[in-house]
Design brief:
The chain has 222 residues and is an all-alpha fold. The chain has twelve helices and no strands. It has one domain: Urease accessory protein UreF (Orthogonal Bundle), CATH 1.10.4190.
C-alpha cells in the first residue's frame, strides 16, 4: 500500500485530535521556547527571513527535527516496557541544559493534560516520546502524527522568529509553507527508520542553545 492510500485512511476525528494536541492552544507552553534562536538573533546570525529559513532547514534536517521524528516513531511502535529506554535516550540526546528543559517540560505538560482528557497512561516523558506514545494508544496514524508534529515545531520557531527579528505575518506564513516538502521528507524517513539512524550535526544550533543560558536579556526560556 502506498503513502497516498495510507493518508486517505485518516478519519476526521483523528485529524481533529492531532490538530488539538499540536495546536498553539494546547497547554504545553511551546510559545516560551526559541530553541536557541533568541541568541542567534541577538548575535546577528539570523536577521531576515532568508537566514531564518536556512537555520530552520538545518534544525529540521540535521538537528532536533529529524531526531524528534525518530524518537516519536520509536515510541509509537514500542510497548510499555520499551518506552522508558526510548525516553532515556531522548533525554541523553539533548545537547544542553535548556534543550533538555525544553523537551522535558513540554513533554510533562503534554502527558498531564492528555492523560486527564483522554484517560491515557502516560507521564513524565520527553515531548516527542509523549506524543508518539499517546498517538499509538489513541490509534492515530503515524504518518500524519509525524507531519503534524514537525509542522507544529517549525511553526513555533517561525513565530519566535517573527517576534525576534522581526518579520511580518505574510513572510512568516510563506516561510512555513516553503518548509512543507522537507517536513514530509523527514516524516517519511523517520517512519522507515529506527533509532540507529540518530545523528545530530546542527552544531551552531546546539551552541546557540548553550549561549542562551547566559544571555543577559531574553524573553524566551531557551
Amino acid at each position: 500500500m502506498g503513502m497516498g492510500a495510507r493518508m486517505a485512511m485518516h478519519t476526521d476525528d483523528q485529524i481533529l485530535t492531532l490538530t488539538q494536541w499540536l495546536s498553539p492552544a494546547y497547554p504545553v507552553g511551546a510559545f516560551a521556547y526559541s530553541h536557541g534562536l533568541e541568541w542567534l538573533v541577538e548575535a546577528g546570525r539570523v536577521s531576515n527571513d532568508g537566514e531564518l529559513h536556512d537555520w530552520l532547514d538545518d534544525v529540521l534536517r540535521y538537528g532536533a527535527g529529524q531526531s524528534d521524528a525518530l524518537f516519536l516513531a520509536a515510541a509509537y511502535g514500542a510497548d510499555a516496557q520499551g518506552i522508558p529506554q526510548i525516553d532515556t535516550q531522548s533525554r541523553a540526546f539533548a545537547p544542553s541544559k535548556e534543550r533538555l528543559q525544553e523537551t522535558d517540560l513540554q513533554g510533562a505538560a503534554f502527558c498531564e493534560i492528555t492523560a486527564t482528557v483522554w484517560a491515557k497512561q502516560i507521564s513524565g516523558l520527553t515531548y516527542p516520546v509523549a506524543v508518539g506514545r499517546a498517538a499509538s494508544l489513541e490509534g492515530l496514524p503515524l504518518p500524519l502524527t509525524l507531519r503534524m508534529y514537525l509542522q507544529a515545531f517549525a511553526s513555533n520557531l517561525v513565530t519566535a522568529g517573527m517576534r525576534l527579528i522581526p518579520l511580518g505575518q505574510t513572510e512568516g506564513q510563506r516561510l512555513i509553507h516553503s518548509l512543507t516538502p522537507l517536513l514530509s521528507e523527514i516524516a517519511d524517513k523517520a517512519q522507515a527508520g529506527s533509532l540507529d539512524d540518530l545523528s545530530g550535526t546542527a552544531f551552531l544550533t546546539d551552541i546557540a542553545a548553550m549561549k542562551h543560558e547566559t544571555q543577559y536579556s531574553r524573553i524566551f526560556r531557551t
